[in-house]
Amino acid sequence: MTYARLYDEPSEPEHDAKKYGGHVVTLIEEPKKVVLTKEQAEIVKCAHDREHPASYISENSYEEKLLMEAYVNGYTVAKEKKYNVKVPHTKDVWYYKSWNADLRTTSDKKLRGKFTEAEIEYYGLQDCEKEEVTDDAD
């Protein structure tokens, strides 16, 4: 039969374990993983291959504390938001990228482009109306 007991003083469990022939198990909560961008995750990933990971992180990012926490406790990569971008001065016309990355327009909901913030900036669409694409519409 297994018994468990919680202790307030660190010396008590060792004493009881010796007295009753048991052992001490320390329970800790698993630390929460840090959420990083793709770029931040790449820095942490590369740091694992370095002789001096902390130096690598500090040389490649101003967010040393965050990235060191991710290095030690683990991390997840944030899903990048995507947007449908409306053509200005139209009722229901939206931009999309063709197979060769040209910018095209459509009124077909299925063809609407899913643009990242970087793509919106690249194509110069910052001033256009946009709506976030949710997972169920993805």
Write out key terms for the chains shown.
alpha+beta; DUF1642 domain-containing protein; DUF1642; 138 residues
Please summarize what this structure is.
The chain is α+β, with helices and mostly antiparallel strands and 138 residues long.
Task: Please give a structural write-up.
The protein folds into two domains: 34-77; 83-137, no CATH class. The chain is built from five helices and six strands. It has helices at 11-20, 38-47, 53-60, 64-73, 117-122; strands at residues 34-36, 75-77, 83-85, 94-97, 103-106, 130-132. The strands form three sheets. It has a two-stranded parallel ribbon with strand order 1-2. The chain has a two-stranded antiparallel sheet with strand order 3-6. A hairpin with a 5-residue loop joins β4 and β5 (103-106). It starts with 10 loop residues before the first helix and ends in a 6-residue tail after the last strand. The mean pLDDT is 85.
